[in-house]
């Protein structure tokens, strides 16, 4: 015999599932997406790129760089944008003193160029990136906001990006949906 509490719980679960299915046609997929954890913080699909990034412990260097370049308002705007977000560990792989030099006011143009090289107009999910590579016979190009293209490749189910200097970064966390696009966490800093 099922007790009253269990029946109410089951009824609530069924109602929630029914509501989710009925809303599915009216709301974008991102609104129903799971909120993945990045850098110890949940990434809410209802928040924009900047609102989420500031909460990730793994992206403090990126956030500081975005602030130094004056790109906060741009990345908080409607977009949509696809952002390839290097982790603190990715920035740490750069030669000693590189980040400290880049965030100086006199290097704002160079920093802006590097950061906008990590941004693509529109929302490209991992599935979209894999299709671009497949349609290109194993690799394809995507044009960045900076203007210089990135090469997209896949190895199995992994997505890799290669910059103009031949540096490669792997997408380590894909499809972190945002209200104004998508973030893909990467393990390297790309350079135009």
What does this structure look like?
With 192 residues, the protein is of the alpha+beta class. The protein contains 9 helices and 9 strands. The longest helix is centred in the N-terminal third of the chain and has 21 residues. The protein is globular and about 40 Å long. 29% of the residues are buried. This is Fasciclin domain-containing protein.
Which labels suit this protein?
192 residues; alpha+beta; two-stranded antiparallel ribbon; 9 helices; globular
Q: What structural class results from the helix and strand content?
A: alpha+beta
Helix content: 25-40%
Q: Rounded to an integer, what's the Rg over CA atoms?
A: 19 Å
Q: What amount of the residues lies in strands?
A: 15-25%
How would you sum up the global shape?
globular
Q: Helix and strand string, N-terminal first?
A: HHEEHHHEHHHEHEEEEE
Terminal Cα separation, in Å?
A: 67 Å
Average pLDDT score: 80
- What's the arrangement of strands in the largest beta sheet? 4-3-9-8-7-6-5
Biggest β-sheet, characterized? 7 strands, mixed
Low-confidence spans: 1-33
Number of strands: 9
| Number of continuous helical runs | 9
Secondary-structure topology with pairs:
Blueprint: H1 4-24, H2 29-32, E1 37-38, E2 41-42, H3 49-53, H4 60-69, H5 72-76, E3 81-86, H6 88-92, H7 98-102, H8 108-116, E4 119-121, H9 126-135, E5 139-143, E6 149-155, E7 158-162, E8 168-178, E9 181-186
Parallel strand pairs: 3-9
Antiparallel strand pairs: 1-2, 3-4, 5-6, 6-7, 7-8, 8-9
Helix pairs in contact: 4-8
């Amino acid at each position: 015999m099922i007790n009253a509490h269990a029946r109410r719980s089951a009824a609530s679960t069924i109602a929630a599932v029914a509501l989710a299915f009925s809303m599915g046609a009216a709301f974008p997929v991102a609104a129903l997406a799971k909120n993945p954890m990045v850098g110890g913080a949940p990434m809410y699909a209802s928040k924009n790129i900047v609102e989420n990034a500031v909460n990730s412990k793994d992206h403090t260097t990126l956030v500081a760089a975005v602030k130094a370049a004056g790109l906060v308002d741009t990345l908080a705007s409607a977009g949509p944008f696809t952002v390839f977000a290097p982790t603190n560990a990715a920035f740490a792989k750069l030669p000693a003193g590189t980040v400290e030099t880049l965030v100086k006011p006199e290097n704002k143009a160079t920093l802006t160029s590097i950061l906008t090289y990590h941004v693509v107009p529109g929302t490209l999910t991992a599935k979209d990136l894999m299709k671009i590579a497949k349609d290109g016979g194993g690799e394809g190009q995507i044009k960045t906001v900076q203007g210089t293209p990135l090469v997209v490749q896949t190895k199995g189910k992994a997505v890799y990006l290669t910059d103009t200097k031949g540096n490669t970064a792997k997408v380590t966390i894909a499809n972190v949906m945002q209200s104004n696009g998508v973030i893909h966490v990467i393990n390297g800093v790309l350079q135009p």
